[in-house]
Design a protein that fits this description.
about 475 residues; alpha/beta
Length: about 475
């Protein structure tokens, strides 16, 4: 019986391959990255079934082919922490410390959110990420069912968590603030996670998403830990976002934010935890993170830290503690872009400066953090993050023919330090082409951006005296 045709074959590319995608220690595995010319990737039912050469693939029948000669194939980049609808607030609030940024601007404006604004913001964010070579993102926001619709329609992969506080204002279309109990808050987060996981042909996975130890009580964090263990859900939250938060927590409670996670059962058990930022993680926190036995990821978004004047994520110490450090952008309200390529470049540069060591972080290490380590940080290390048989077909094709990337002496260095997200030509998720030769196939950007612009005056109104929380760390 003849072999059925492949759904997609990508031929002629130079492919970034991980020598052993199962290797969990980035200290050993970063040098295992290698580039293989004239590679062909064979895709069936959304899965890479063969990584071979172009000559061998020439005889394989296929419903669709991409001639990728002259292009580099990478695993799709992963945005490990963002708030996708916040693209609606891009550039609105600049050059202010985080207390003022949150209390006087962001949280009052977010009390105006409507499901339609969230839907449009999520679609615009998805378009931006597809253009920039991001194939998967971890989102932490409100009205997450609306964001799930955008993910399903645009074809991206995402881990989604409905954010909750212990006491919060509701986000109804009317904009009227009411108080909801902590039980109702985390129950809503759990309901979303259980209802929507596995949606979009499995491209949507879900998480429980408490906001942070300073906005969620110990009791609610402990309840989150129990529910996450019971239902095998990732927990995605902010913790030790900056050093001032950690110092305040120590002064008020005698514990660091990481101590709080440990004491409430979120570390060290059978729970996968994704910590956003972690720039305030101290040396005293490392034993608790190490005790989690590789079940903790930290999402680092260096651009926003530079804007706020924070320290950066202690990547080297975290890697030594067995933590999976992934790359992120945070929301576009603080980061201005959803450009993970930029995050990769900045991570390599800022880590060298912070550690006073030009040998850390190398271009190869940066590529690994952007791909396989990011996949592990969001709980998808067995599905994505590398181009290998059995992995989902999430990949991007990059054009290095521009004057800013020539000549190429070291391909890894060229990708990290010379290439830009605009050099991504084609983006594929689950074997489906979401951008071909720079043209989006699943999002009408002018229509989305035009409608969103019409809604902005009502969104940015701050005179109502409401805010969804108070930032006081």
């Amino acid at each position: 019986m003849p072999t059925p045709p492949a759904d997609l074959i990508v031929t002629g590319c130079t492919a970034l391959l991980h020598a052993d995608p199962a290797e969990t220690d980035p200290r050993r595995a970063a040098d295992g990255l290698h580039f293989v010319p004239d590679t062909a990737l064979v895709v069936r039912a959304g899965v890479i079934t063969d990584v071979t050469d172009s000559a061998a693939a020439a005889t394989v029948p296929s419903r669709e082919r991409i001639d990728a000669r002259g292009l580099v194939a990478l695993p799709g980049l992963i945005n490990c922490h963002t708030h996708s609808p916040m693209v609606a607030l891009r550039g609105l609030v600049e050059d202010r410390p985080e207390q003022e940024w949150f209390n006087d601007w962001i949280w009052p404006i977010e009390s105006n959110l409507t499901p339609r604004v969230i839907a449009l913001g999520a679609r615009l964010a998805c378009a931006e990420m597809i253009r920039g070579g991001v194939t998967c993102f971890a989102d932490h926001y409100f009205s997450m069912d609306v964001i799930a619709d955008a993910v399903e329609e645009t074809g991206l992969r995402a881990n989604l968590g409905e954010a909750f506080f212990s006491h919060e204002a509701s986000h109804e279309a009317s904009g009227e603030a009411s108080r909801s109990s902590s039980k109702e808050s985390w129950a809503r987060s759990l309901d979303f996670a259980l209802t929507h996981r596995g949606r979009a042909d499995g491209r949507i996975t879900t998480a429980l998403a408490p906001h942070a130890p300073y906005t969620v009580t110990d009791d609610d964090l402990a309840a989150t830990a129990r529910l996450a263990a019971e239902h095998a859900l990732l927990v995605h939250l902010h913790a030790a976002e900056n050093r001032a938060q950690t110092d305040t927590s120590l002064a008020r409670h005698g514990r660091t934010p990481v101590d709080v996670l440990r004491d409430t059962g979120l570390l060290g058990g059978d729970i996968d935890v994704l910590i956003a930022h972690g720039t305030g993680i101290l040396g005293r926190d490392l034993p608790a993170l190490r005790a989690a036995r590789g079940r903790v990821g930290v999402a680092s978004a260096p651009r926003g830290y530079m804007k706020f004047g924070w320290d950066t994520t202690p990547v080297r110490a975290l890697v030594d503690a067995g933590v999976h450090v992934g790359l992120a952008t945070d929301g576009a309200a603080s980061n201005n872009t959803l450009d993970v390529w930029e995050a990769m470049t900045l991570t390599a540069l800022v880590q060298k400066q912070t550690e006073h060591d030009p040998r850390w972080l190398t271009a190869r290490q940066a590529l690994r953090h952007a791909t396989l380590d990011s996949a592990r940080a969001v709980g998808l290390g067995d599905r994505i993050g590398s181009l290998a048989p059995g992995r989902r077909a999430d990949l991007v094709l990059v054009d290095l023919s521009g004057p800013h990337t020539r000549p190429v002496h070291d391909l890894a260095a060229t990708l990290v330090h010379s290439a830009r997200s605009a050099d991504v030509r084609t983006t594929v998720v689950d074997g489906r082409i979401l951008m071909r030769d720079g043209h989006l196939t699943t999002v009408d950007v002018p229509s989305v951006a035009g409608e969103l612009s019409e809604l902005l005056p009502a969104l940015v109104e701050r005179g109502h005296g409401r805010r969804i929380q108070r930032y006081d760390t």
